[in-house]
Every structure is written in structure tokens, then in C-alpha cells.
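Input sequence (264 aa), recorded before submission:
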Amino acid sequence: MSTEQEGGQELEREETNPQAQAEPSPAAAAPLAAAPAQALRRKPFLARLLNRIGVQTGETAEWALDWLQVIVVAGLLAYLVMTFVLVRMRVPTGSMIPTIEEGDSFFVDKISYYFRKPVPGDIIVFWHYERTGKIRYVKRLIAVAGQTVQLKGCDRFPQEECGLYVDGKRLEGPAFARPYYNSGSYNFCQIGAATGDHCTMSDPETVVTVPEGYYFVLGDNSRNSLDSRFWGFASEKDFIGEPFLRVWPPSRFGAMNGYFGSKR
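Predicted structure, C-alpha cell format:
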């Protein structure tokens, strides 16, 4: 009887021992748990590209390549934004006082003008060509192609009559609520800043017609602004966009140029 019991116990031990041996120890289970995590870790795109052409990459190289592709993508996005969406501009002169003060900095909306055109009264930014190259100008759009412009300076006409006349009608509204002058404080014609025969605008009886594909622009501070009175019309092809958010100085931070209900 005791022999049978002992034999049964031996059989039981033999049946249970294989199960015990099959169970992995905690130390052995750790690599098994780590293996899936390593398999799920995806190599950077640049590393996979190098691997495809036979270049092997280690962990340090893959870390560097990961950061490199982040920098490249960020740079590409910045380029696309600055080219097609918006650009920041600082104004170095007082030609747009009081609307834009000297030293003001703002963002220019470029993207919305792929779908619409600026209208008279808007402040626009465009490329202007000088002897040293092209620079960004900011002025107010007065008239577009096909319209006529006459400027009756407030230093020559009474207040109720002086101002800008487009297609024979005096411009009214907040965008034009300021005095305008034919020449201003500086005689740009005499100092050589004017080009061609545009000095005829110094005569208040002169009426000019804006040619196709061009804009007539003026600075709000027409006493101290080099604009269409002196160098002619701005080309539609050189149009960049419109200021919409002033970011400097902090005291003047906010929307501008009619954006989000702001003043024009």
C-alpha cells in the first residue's frame, strides 16, 4: 500500500514538474517583454532611406537623423508660410502717420489675396524698385485700373473742397479722413526722387488715369511720403498683401486695416 502511494506520488511529481519547468522565470520574461517594444519603435524616415541604399545606421545616428528631419520639416513649413501665407514687416518711415507710426511692426496677410483683390481705401504692401534694389512699401490704395485721380491740395483749396477725387467724386469716409497735399514738405521733384513726368501731380488741375494692371497709392502723411505722385503707379504684379495684425509696439498691439472690425 505504501509502495503504491509512493509510486503515485512519483507519477504526480513527474506530471507536475514539466509544467513548472515550462514557466519562465521573471529574469527570462524581461527580454520577451522588451522585444515587442523594440519591434514597434519606428526608425526615422531618413534612417530607413539610408538603410534601403545599403547604409547601416546605429542608435546614435538614428537619434541625430530624427532631429534632422524635424528641423528640415519645420524649415520647410516656415518657408511655405512666409511665401504664401503671411510675412512680418517693420516700417522705417513716417509716411503713413498717424495710421502707422514710424517703427511699427505688423504681419501682412498674403493668402486671402489669392481669392480676392484689394479695394480703394485698403492699406497695401507691395514691392517698389529703387536704384539699390527692391524694397517693401506700405501705402493706401486710392484708385485701381481705369479710374481717374485728381488731388486738390488742402494748402491750396478750402477744407470743404480739398481732398482726393476719383472719377470726379471726392473720396469720403474714415480711410480718407485727412488732409492731402500736392507736393508736401519735400519737393521730391527737385531732389531727384521723382521719376518720369509724374511731377505733374503737383498741379491740382492734373487728372491722371490709372493704366490697366496698376494701382495709384498715397501715404496717409502726404506731406512726407514718396508715392504715386512722384514715381508713378504701383504694379498689381508687385502686390504682396495687406497689414492685418500690429505686433509692435505692445501699446498698439491689435488688428488693423479693417480686419476683425478694426479701423481702416
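Checked by second reader. The first strand starts at residue 86 and ends at 90.
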